[in-house]
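I am still learning, so would you mind making up any protein sequence you like and the tokens describing how it folds?
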Amino acid sequence: MMLNDIPITIHPSIDMQIQFKHTVLALMMAGAAFFASCESKTEIPTMQIMVTKGAIVLNSGDVYYSLDGSITYIDFTTEQAQQNVFKYANGMSLGGSPDDVIVYDDKIYVAGSVENAVFVLNAKNFKLIQTISTTEQMGEPEGNCPKRLCAYDGKVYFSTRGGYVGVIDTQTLSIVNKYQVGPSPEGIAVGMTGETPFLYVANSDEGLGQGSISVVNLLSGSASEWTNDRIAYPMDLFLANDGMYVLDGGVLDGNMEMEDTGIYRAALDGSNVTKVAKDARVMSAVGYNILYYHKSKDGDSGYSVLDTGGDHTSDFSFQGDASSPIAQPGAMAIDPNTGYILLASSPEEDDVYSPCHVNLYTRDGQFVKSYPAGACPKRIVFLYRSYDD
């Protein structure tokens, strides 16, 4: 099984995506213009082709063991991994337990959960541009512990443990709005219904079993919330095919182990909730595919691909990494330009001091190379540059 029909993303921003089901090589050979019409007076629209420059690995560290968070940069040109790039660029630590990272336009945004801040970095050199204090600008507890990030239409949105989503204006780098959502929101995403953008928020309730999904109309600012008995601990979500796919952590059983973990499909209004992948623990989505790691209470584990076009699941295997095995799967990301998969591994549980690493695989799961990473790699995103740079 391979990840078929992965689209090419010409611009990595959510609101400017143009997707084509071709390979990068075919796209480059086709030239940098589309011929939309044969009429002689029709202007030929041009496009900017983006190629993958490298990958940013956000390492959360471990506050309990006094291990600060850090950033590893994997340079695909030199095929080298640079450790602690934020610290070397700024002469300071990233702090404890950073939770998420995104690249939007020419900036990198990092959610600093312990520092109650969103760090804004220059995407070219990792220099700190601004530290946005979420508690100072939103108040307590609204801005407490920023968790997850997404971007849309010149704004960066971040969820907070205080039960809010803050809105950063990317020009002024200040918080210009906030929305009250459900308890302990985690994953967030923006989707369009007609011409109206909606923000969808997975409210985790800290795994206490009363999770929900908030829906915010970004034009009117109105917010609603829906619940379903099957979705107890929503941690992340992905929008596709006029619906959403929710990664749910399940509930604790009598032996204090999680059960009913998986990926659920739901209509955007919360109806028609169906489990489409059981025992899922980590997922990454691109195009119409969701690659996920699953592990049952009995210890059976593996990888699968969920085709959201028909909610069809197929087994997926990673091969050739015997010298750098994935002991404890963590961050997972798929580059839409190449189909390459990056999969981060932490050591076995309760071993925070052993080295972590990130493996690079082809779209069909063949091992290419392993890179060292910092403590507890948690998120992976890609950096792009224009083809004519």
Observations:
- Helices lie at 24-29, 85-90, 134-138.
